[in-house]
Design brief:
The complex is a heterodimer of chains A (about 110) and B (about 110).
Chain A lengths: L3 E3 L2 E5 L4 E6 L4 E9 L6 E6 L5 E4 L2 E6 L4 E6 L8 E9 L7 E2 L3 E6 L1
Parallel strand pairs in A: 2-11
Antiparallel strand pairs in A: 1-3, 3-8, 4-5, 4-9, 6-7, 7-8, 9-10, 9-11
Chain B lengths: L3 E4 L2 E4 L5 E7 L5 E8 L3 E10 L2 E4 L6 E3 L9 E3 L8 E8 L6 E3 L3 E5 L1
Parallel strand pairs in B: 2-11
Antiparallel strand pairs in B: 1-3, 3-8, 4-5, 4-9, 5-6, 7-8, 9-10, 9-11
Chain lengths: ~110, ~110
């Protein structure tokens, strides 16, 4: 039931862009994105509920293709503070409630 | 400040012993969750509870038990039946609407 994330790891220089993908084999009600810094709890970034909806906050945005059960997280002009592990969490229509998380994408932004 | 408190932060246990991890929230959230995190495995759902006195198994419930006697509390017991209990355990809660999770700081369990 775990969604599949890609890539597993990314190394960027400050100012570069990155895309993290999340796909599910099940029809999805929603997709969530969280970021976890080393030794800390995951923190909510955003949620996408509608097909094709794109949401964003400053230089981090995401899209959700409801037909393909895929979501992408876009990080533009990356900052050092973006480093961490990014998780997508999905809620399939069939399971109804609790989030299923992917294995995560480790992002390292270097100076 | 509202939040989720997990205790203990670190716990060592001998094989064959049961241990209980505490999770308390003061966010007035109805739903609470337990996830297990292993390196490279992401977060895997153990149990969740949508209301008091009710809970459902997640993907990896075997060897674990929970109770939900109060809205604020959702303790997790790792029993001796759990074959590989060494892991980082995260408790979370969510309010009404779209299940946005607020996580606690986690408990790291090591079995010696």
């Amino acid at each position: 039931q775990q969604p599949v994330q890609s890539p597993q790891a990314v190394i960027l220089r400050e100012g570069e862009d990155a895309v993290i993908n999340c796909s599910s084999s099940k029809a999805l009600y929603s997709v969530h994105w969280y970021r976890q810094k080393h030794g800390e709890a995951p923190v909510f970034l955003m949620i996408l509920l509608k097909g094709g909806e794109q949401k964003g906050h400053e230089k981090i945005s995401a899209s959700f293709n409801e037909k393909k059960q895929q979501s992408s997280l876009y990080l533009t002009a990356s900052q050092l503070s973006y480093s961490g592990t990014y998780f997508c969490g999905t809620v399939p229509f069939t399971s109804g409630y609790a989030l299923n998380f992917g294995k995560g994408t480790s992002l390292l932004v270097t100076p | 400040d509202g939040g989720i408190t997990q205790s203990p932060k670190y716990l060592f246990r001998k094989e064959g012993q049961n241990v209980t991890l505490s999770c308390e929230q003061n966010l007035n959230h109805d739903a609470m969750y337990w996830y297990r995190q292993d390196p490279g495995q992401g977060l895997r759902l153990i149990y969740y509870s949508q209301i008091v006195n009710d809970f459902q198994k997640g993907d990896i419930a075997e060897g674990y038990s929970v109770s939900r006697e109060k809205k604020e509390s959702f303790p997790l017991t790792v029993t001796s039946a759990q074959k590989n209990p060494t892991a980082f355990y995260l408790c979370a809660s969510s309010g009404p609407g779209a299940n946005v999770l607020t996580f606690g700081a986690g408990s790291r369990l090591t079995v010696l």
